[in-house]
UniProtKB/TrEMBL annotation:
The chain crosses the membrane at residues 21-43, 49-69, 76-93, 99-120, 132-157, 163-183, 212-230, 242-265, 277-295, 301-323, 343-361, 367-386. Keywords: Membrane, Transmembrane, Transmembrane helix. The lineage of its organism: unclassified sequences, metagenomes, ecological metagenomes. GO terms for molecular function: transmembrane transporter activity. This is Unannotated protein. InterPro entries: MFS, MFS_Cyanate_Porter, MFS_trans_sf.
Length: 392
């Protein structure tokens, strides 16, 4: 089979995951370049803005166990469809402009995305078979692309209209609504497919599994840095002389390039019997980026952002494919995904909060960048166990 035909076949199998994935990070990414504008217009402090950034990640932590329970009692396809409708409503109504709407619908957005976070890896295990690596890499890349587009256009849209930051949020609500309609029509046409309940496993049973903890630690630490960096790097660039739109566009373009370049990484990981070396490689690239941001200045900051975000763009899909590689069945993948994301995102949620608090305490971003370097080092330690060959 030619490479083109194989790609087309894999794309057709993974299309439902791709439709969901393009909507999973836009609502979070759109806020990052304009978080300062939102704070000024609504009178929010740095800590309040840090909490706003942390809400989705906290939802990922606390809602994931419930999403895992959904996997055990109903069809994954139905659960994803419902989550898509909730996500669309949250994205649309968050743009009404009040402080209450901003926080409440960000909470709702976080809940819906948490459900999708847990169910998509299990969906890939159930439907993807030997194509799991390609499907995972593609859907994570699409998440990165749409996230980068949201980053790139949010500041220009904010500046272009009297609606300010509300206008920047509206397109993503419309896109999610179209995705929800597509999923509803797909279920009506194709029906539902269930996980084999005879092999179901509770994520709590994995709490006694050392390998499950190693995968969870790697995911949590890389996500902690990713969310801290994604929240504050545009602000760091702005404080160091970049224009607001330029800071957002810089991060957007680099995130886009990183996501595209990292698309092949999960497939590469599936061809290896162990993944430690590839996890260490991209962890080291991330560390080089944060070290450069800490020590350097001027135009070279763009280069160091490239290193940091490229490394993060690769380690995120790697952590997701670890769920597939360390699981023998779809039920085990669902349980591991639930544990990894429940605990991992609880770790990740502290990233934006701690870096924001460190800045407020020290008055400098360097202390926060040094803290993020420590987290990258711990991520490298976790990779030693998470990347070792074998299943749970």
């Amino acid at each position: 089979m030619s490479g083109f035909h194989k790609f087309f076949r894999d794309s057709k199998i993974g299309l439902p995951a791709y439709v969901a994935a393009i909507n999973m990070r836009t609502g979070i990414a759109v806020i990052t370049p304009i978080i300062t504008v939102i704070g000024i217009e609504l009178g929010l402090s740095t800590i309040e803005l840090a909490w706003l950034a942390a809400i989705p990640v906290l939802c990922f932590a606390f809602i994931s166990p419930v999403a895992g329970w959904f996997n055990q009692i109903g069809s994954i396809d139905r659960i994803i469809s419902i989550a898509m409708w909730v996500l669309a409503a949250a994205l649309l109504f968050r743009a009404t402009g009040s402080v209450f709407a901003l926080f409440f619908f960000t909470l709702l957005l976080g809940i819906a995305t948490a459900v999708l976070n847990v169910t998509l890896p299990a969906w890939v295990k159930l439907h993807g078979g030997e194509h799991a690596g390609v499907i995972t890499g593609t859907y994570v890349t699409l998440m990165g692309i749409t996230s980068a587009v949201a980053l790139a256009i949010s500041a220009p849209l904010t500046a272009a209209s009297s609606l300010s930051w509300q206008l920047a949020m509206l397109p993503w609500g419309v896109l999610a609504l179209l995705g929800a309609i597509w999923w509803q029509l797909r279920i009506r046409e194709n029906g539902l497919r269930e996980i084999d309940q005879s092999s179901k496993i509770s994520w709590r049973t994995l709490l006694r599994n050392r390998r499950a903890w190693q995968v969870t630690a790697f995911f949590g630490l890389q996500s902690m840095n990713a969310y801290a960096g994604g929240t504050w790097i545009p602000t760091i660039l702005f404080d160091r002389g970049y224009a607001l739109a330029a800071a957002g566009l810089t991060v957007a373009i680099i995130s886009l390039l990183g996501s595209i370049a990292a698309a092949y990484v999960p497939q590469l990981a599936t061809t290896r019997t162990e993944q430690r070396s590839i996890l260490w490689l991209f962890t080291a690239i991330t560390a080089v980026g944060y070290l450069g941001l800490l020590l350097d200045s001027g135009w070279r900051l763009t280069l160091w952002v490239l290193f940091a975000l490229f490394g993060q763009s690769a380690t995120f899909p790697l952590s997701l494919i670890l769920v597939v590689l360390r699981s023998e069945t779809a039920a085990t993948a669902a349980a591991l995904s639930t544990m990894m994301q429940s605990i991992g995102y609880l770790i990740a949620a502290t990233g934006p909060l701690l870096v924001g608090a460190i800045f407020q305490w020290s008055g400098s971003w360097n202390a926060g960048l040094a803290f993020m370097l420590v987290i990258v080092a711990l991520q490298g330690i976790a990779a030693a166990g998470a990347g070792r060959r074998g299943t749970l």
